[in-house]
């Protein structure tokens, strides 16, 4: 399984960019995006920025990743998923069998 990381662009030349997530930096391909600016949030999968994220979406994805890490360590993870407190998770339309 591949997991997309919400990374912040630190520097870019239009073809590749240096991006950061939780203190780790890596150079990623920017070829799928239309020249995003330094400071923008991008979803990175297999060292390729695949789409732009807004700040709220980047924060929710980072929180979900922290929640998965907590669950794997046997720790309480509900606090990492505040958007699910008052509702059950729903499958996207294309995955529903009904």
From TrEMBL:
GO biological process entries: protein maturation
Listed GO MF terms: carbon dioxide binding; iron ion binding
Matches recorded under SUPFAM superfamilies: HupF/HypC-like
One protein family per Pfam: HupF_HypC
PANTHER family cross-referenced by the UniProt entry: HYDROGENASE MATURATION FACTOR HYBG
Family: Belongs to the HupF/HypC family.
Name this protein carries in UniProt: Hydrogenase
């Amino acid at each position: 399984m591949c997991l997309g990381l919400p990374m912040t662009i630190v520097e870019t030349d239009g073809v590749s960019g240096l991006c950061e997530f939780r203190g780790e930096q890596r150079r990623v391909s920017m070829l799928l995006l239309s020249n995003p600016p330094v400071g923008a949030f991008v979803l990175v999968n297999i060292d390729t920025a695949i789409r732009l994220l807004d700040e709220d979406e980047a924060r929710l994805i980072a929180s979900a990743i922290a929640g998965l890490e907590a669950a794997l360590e046997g720790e309480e993870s509900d606090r990492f998923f505040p958007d699910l407190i008052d509702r059950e998770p729903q499958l996207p339309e294309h995955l529903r069998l009904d």
